[in-house]
Amino acid sequence: MARLIRFDGSEELVYPVDPPKGCSLSEMYALIGCQMIETVYLKSGQIMILDEEGKLRDDCEARENPKASLLLHSAGGAEDDFITGNVLICNDEEFQ
Fold this sequence. Notes:
Layout: E1 2-5, E2 11-14, H1 25-32, E3 37-41, E4 47-51, H2 66-74, E5 87-90
């Protein structure tokens, strides 16, 4: 199971259609709401999957995700950097 962190602050545990294989790209695109993903490896050993083009959207400031940004900062990301949109947090085995 992966954790979906929405930009509105809500969170949900999500399960891939085929758990042994993990989340497919099409599942991730649908959950995150994007067409291209980026991965960030967190110090916890987990992977954050986010919208590669999130900051290029006209509404990027309205879609800022403070919870995901905090995870980015704790992983060594620049303090002035931020995440927009929904993100998935998962382990290697949950990611195809």
